[in-house]
Amino acid sequence: METSTFTKPLTIGKKIERVRNLRGMTQDEVGTGLGISKQAVSKLEQSESIEDDRLEQIAKVLGVTKDGLVNFNEERVLNISTNFNEGCNVTAQSIYTFVENVNNPIEKIIELYENLLKTEREKVEILLKKNQS
To answer: How far apart are CA 80 and CA 24, in angstroms?
Structure first.
């Protein structure tokens, strides 16, 4: 005899929590975006229902649509992820390189400011020489 397991559908609060985790966000970050405390976010994540206006705000902070949040389904996410990963040539090295490039813009900014500072110093020297003549 075949047995089936019934899983209780996710509450809207649990969907918010799962999407937040998938997006790599903390409760503090979501709270900051909503103007509420970490504890209030925790309470939201335990809610079984949330008003539409508030849901819109939460979805915006999470970077998803309200419909996407309401209709969130972990199984679909896993299927999409599996299909995507099987159909692409992404390697751990390419991900690391991408992350390094994204996370190191500060080095580029420093380089640009150093070049700008050098140029400004050269301008000052030229002006000082003109003033002395």
So the answer is: 18
